[in-house]
Amino acid sequence: MQQVPALKIDGITIGQSLAIIEYLEETRPTPRLLPQDPKRRAQVRVISDVIASGIQPLQNLSVLKQVGQENQLTWAQKVIHSGFNALEQILRSTAGKYCVGDEVSMADLCLVPQVANAERFKVDLTPYPTISRINKTLLALEAFQVSHPCRQPDTPPELRA
Amino acid sequence: MTESGKPILYSYFRSSCSWRVRIALALKSIDYETVPINLIKDGGQQFSEEFQALNPMQQVPALKIDGITIGQSLAIIEYLEETRPTPRLLPQDPKRRAQVRVISDVIASGIQPLQNLSVLKQVGQENQLTWAQKVIHSGFNALEQILRSTAGKYCVGDEVSMADLCLVPQVANAERFKVDLTPYPTISRINKTLLALEAFQVSHPCRQPDTPPELRA
Predict the structure, then answer these.
(1) Does B215 fall in a domain?
(2) Mind listing the pLDDT tens digit for each residue in A83-120?
(3) Ranges for the GST C-terminal domain (chain B) (predicted)?
(4) Which residue among A29, B7, B179, B203 is least enclosed by CB atoms within 10 Å?
(5) How close A159 gets to chain B, by Cα (Å)?
(6) Are residues B68 and B110 in the same domain?
(7) What is the pTM of this model?
């Protein structure tokens, strides 16, 4: 697909972030990233898919290139607003401390990076209090900090934490 | 659920995402009722307040089952797989499951959303065909390569999986956008094999309750 991420593990290479995460969950099951109950698992997957199919691909690099530089910001903002409107509504019935109840799940792994994208595209997050609250809570967790774009081996010096 | 207790599928005959779920329901022999949502009429019935309350993404498919409503076709299929596990739509082995999910995600995240109705509307009518063809070619180039190492009779080995449920509707989209499929012999072969199966036929856009008369099989 000529995209990142790709993970080389156990003798195979897997692309597509959610396929990677589901593989990790099935082969390294603790701590859980998906609840045990099928209905809650469905909620986690719905939220993840809303972000991974419904928002991010529409504002990724290759699409923005095709949209043309003068339209990019408007396009990205429109796409994110559209998706976040739906997400805010969904989260109001699924969220506890995190996206689904009170355990961190694959949905939370999708939410934080998408909020970072929203901020990069100067999307006003005021209409999305649930998204903002959950994002803030997650960013305080160590896993979300060590993995942050500002702390990677390839983070440019001027953006490094 | 209806009074009869059957699941309800909100579907549009031509929606490739809805078709994926229709195939899953057929393969698992799950009897259901269809509530058609016309994506074009009345400005798009998916935008009604009533439907938005059911599915905030304002998209089809949505499935009402077991007291809940689920949007997002792959989330629906994974739920069906976990609650009605036979016949399988995902292999047992985690590495093969990953292959199924990769192929499904390439289609469901990497191709279809970029050529769906709402994106095409924004691209503008004069650009739509070129845009859709570009998106599909790009994705099919990758998919053809992936399938060459995963495919047997079907997308992953010799058992029908969630990947196959995603493939056939996307090929139908490709045909609708007049994409030349000659560069994709593996995709074409698998598509042809799958279309011969009953579940792919009963769920076909040309045989739905909301199929317009002129397109009906």
Answers:
(1) no
(2) 999 999 999 999 999 999 999 999 999 999 999 999 99
(3) 93-213
(4) A29
(5) 29
(6) no
(7) 0.97
